């Protein structure tokens, strides 16, 4: 069966253009013009991935509200914010609410398709049965790559798929600095520097919600990040 993408966009021309382009790639696209329509549909059945505009008609943050709803319904469903607004505040706000990526509407179709494909590749691991688990244990940290689960001090850490693979890239070589490009390559992401910085902040915050003394992800200024014991 084709993957189902929910496209929530209030501009009819943009909505129709992207719907046709995504359908040409073999995706099934359910398009919605506003938050109420999308919200009702999500309560009935979840898509495989959601692309959501932040400003929806007269609701300037309607997309954020939809993201919160989706995260309550599923902790792993890939969510992409798609907007004409391009500033750090929106990016960080969107990622804090649980989105996996943030794109502006001037992005090329090839770039959008690459990001969608990368998110689907990662979510495939959730449904792929594994005979043996692929576990990493570093002190209080336990990461199971085959099940995409993370625990800290025996408590689960609810990471999105993007956050999971960024953490996985860091812990494979603890103490080694990973540049932003290496984090993208090793976690099979296509994102910009601002997005990576926002993801790292969100990962730290989720660990600190469990343990306020958590300090194992170091920023090495001008170079990147590392997992430090």
TrEMBL record:
<dbReference type="InterPro" id="IPR036388">
    <property type="entry name" value="WH-like_DNA-bd_sf"/>
</dbReference>
<keyword id="KW-0597">Phosphoprotein</keyword>
<keyword id="KW-0804">Transcription</keyword>
<dbReference type="InterPro" id="IPR016032">
    <property type="entry name" value="Sig_transdc_resp-reg_C-effctor"/>
</dbReference>
<dbReference type="Pfam" id="PF00486">
    <property type="entry name" value="Trans_reg_C"/>
</dbReference>
<keyword id="KW-0902">Two-component regulatory system</keyword>
<keyword id="KW-0238">DNA-binding</keyword>
<dbReference type="InterPro" id="IPR001789">
    <property type="entry name" value="Sig_transdc_resp-reg_receiver"/>
</dbReference>
<feature type="domain" description="Response regulatory">
    <location>
        <begin position="4"/>
        <end position="120"/>
    </location>
</feature>
<dbReference type="GO" id="GO:0000156">
    <property type="term" value="F:phosphorelay response regulator activity"/>
</dbReference>
<dbReference type="GO" id="GO:0006355">
    <property type="term" value="P:regulation of DNA-templated transcription"/>
</dbReference>
<dbReference type="InterPro" id="IPR011006">
    <property type="entry name" value="CheY-like_superfamily"/>
</dbReference>
<feature type="modified residue" description="4-aspartylphosphate">
    <location>
        <position position="53"/>
    </location>
</feature>
<feature type="DNA-binding region" description="OmpR/PhoB-type">
    <location>
        <begin position="133"/>
        <end position="229"/>
    </location>
</feature>
<dbReference type="InterPro" id="IPR022305">
    <property type="entry name" value="Response_regulator"/>
</dbReference>
<dbReference type="InterPro" id="IPR039420">
    <property type="entry name" value="WalR-like"/>
</dbReference>
<keyword id="KW-0805">Transcription regulation</keyword>
<protein>
    <submittedName>
        <fullName>Proteobacterial dedicated sortase system response regulator</fullName>
    </submittedName>
</protein>
<dbReference type="InterPro" id="IPR001867">
    <property type="entry name" value="OmpR/PhoB-type_DNA-bd"/>
</dbReference>
<dbReference type="GO" id="GO:0005829">
    <property type="term" value="C:cytosol"/>
</dbReference>
<dbReference type="Pfam" id="PF00072">
    <property type="entry name" value="Response_reg"/>
</dbReference>
<feature type="domain" description="OmpR/PhoB-type">
    <location>
        <begin position="133"/>
        <end position="229"/>
    </location>
</feature>
<dbReference type="GO" id="GO:0000976">
    <property type="term" value="F:transcription cis-regulatory region binding"/>
</dbReference>
<dbReference type="GO" id="GO:0032993">
    <property type="term" value="C:protein-DNA complex"/>
</dbReference>
């Amino acid at each position: 069966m084709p993957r189902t993408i929910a496209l929530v966009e209030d501009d009819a021309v943009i909505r129709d253009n992207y719907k046709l382009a995504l359908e040409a790639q073999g995706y099934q696209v359910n398009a919605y013009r506003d938050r109420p329509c999308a919200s009702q549909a999500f309560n009935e059945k979840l898509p495989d991935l959601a692309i959501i505009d932040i400003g929806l008609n007269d609701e300037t943050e309607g997309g954020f509200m939809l993201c919160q709803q989706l995260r309550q319904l599923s902790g792993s469903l890939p969510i992409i914010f798609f907007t004409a607004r391009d500033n750090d505040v929106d990016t960080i706000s969107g990622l804090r609410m649980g989105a996996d990526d943030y794109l502006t509407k001037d992005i090329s179709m090839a770039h959008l398709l690459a990001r969608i494909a990368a998110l689907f590749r990662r979510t495939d691991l959730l449904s792929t049965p594994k005979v043996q688990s692929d576990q990493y244990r570093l002190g209080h940290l336990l990461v199971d790559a085959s099940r995409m689960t993370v625990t800290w001090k025996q408590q689960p850490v609810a990471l999105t798929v993007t956050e999971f693979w960024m953490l996985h890239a860091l812990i494979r070589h603890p103490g080694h600095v990973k540049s932003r490009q290496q984090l993208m390559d090793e976690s099979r992401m296509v994102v910009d520097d601002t997005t990576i910085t926002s993801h790292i902040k969100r990962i730290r915050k989720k660990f600190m919600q469990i343990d306020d003394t958590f300090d194992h992800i170091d920023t090495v200024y001008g170079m990147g990040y590392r997992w430090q014991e």
